[in-house]
Write a structure and sequence with these properties.
This protein is mainly beta. Helix content is 0%, strand content 55%.
Length: 117
């Protein structure tokens, strides 16, 4: 099976930065796509950022220009750098990956990000 373990969440003030890491039990290039989703209380889970084939990236409009996703193939890790954080970024952030060999997606347990105003 595949495990995804997030780390790096926490509390930060508006305008601050946080770095989230997702450690995968399989090599990052073995995933077709990996990324980050988030879910705020009472809201649906939404895509934040994702990387395809370890190279191509895309972002939600709400985080474009503030967040950066990157893949560290040597460490089997996907990192989300979050800058200029806003209170509306407050949510539980989940690491996600689709692994073609298994034909399904996998989720991490989530990490809380709270941005105070």
């Amino acid at each position: 099976q595949v495990e995804l373990v997030e780390s790096g969440g926490g509390l930060v003030q508006t305008g601050g930065s946080l770095r989230l890491s997702c450690a995968a039990s399989k090599s990052v290039p073995s995933f077709y796509r990996m990324g980050w989703y988030r879910q705020a209380p009472g809201e649906q889970r939404e895509m934040v950022a994702r990387v395809t084939n370890g190279v191509a990236t895309d972002y939600a409009d709400t985080v474009q220009g503030r967040f950066t996703i990157s893949a560290d193939n040597a460490k089997n890790t996907v990192v989300l750098e979050m800058n200029s954080l806003k209170p509306e970024d407050t949510a539980v952030y989940y690491c996600w990956g689709y692994h073609a060999n298994y034909g399904r997606e996998f989720w991490g347990q989530g990490t809380q990000v709270t941005v105070s105003s």
